Amino acid sequence: MVGGDDWALEGFCAGAAGWITGVGVVLPAPSVRLWDLCAAGDLVAARRVYAELLPLCRLDMTPKLVQYFKAALDELGLGGGPCRPPRLALTDDELATLREAVASATSATVS
């Protein structure tokens, strides 16, 4: 199993049988596409999808991963909602980072 979003490509190529992912909750279609491309051995296309997802994937490896993924769902109109205490809200800079990551990742949905 791959347990970190920012090494999914490597994990799939090493033979992982699954992925515990926040990105897959936010953007299931490109996440499945990444899996399918790796399984088919199309690493050129897989790297392209992964590069688009990677800014969002990197947010999985931060202390505020729950806040980032809930906010990503909100950005996409899917209703992530607020986090319960003691989790802190994202700062303005963190929200800007998230919005850039979502913009990059959502381009993967049209690849």
N- to C-terminal separation?
25 Å
CATH architecture descriptor name? Alpha-Beta Barrel
Uncertain ranges: none
Approximate helicity band: 55-70%
Main sheet characteristics: none
N to C succession of SSEs: HHHHHH
Q: Beta-strand level of the residues, as a percent range?
A: under 5%
Q: Count helical runs.
A: 6
CATH class bucket: Alpha Beta
Report the mean per-residue pLDDT as an integer: 93
Notes on the structure:
There is one protein chain. The chain has about 110 residues and is mainly alpha-helical. The protein has one domain: Aldolase class I (TIM Barrel), CATH 3.20.20. The chain contains six helices and no strands. It has helices at about 10-15, 25, 30-40, 45-60, 65-75, 90-105. α5 (about 65-75) crosses α6 (about 90-105). The two termini are about 25 Å apart.
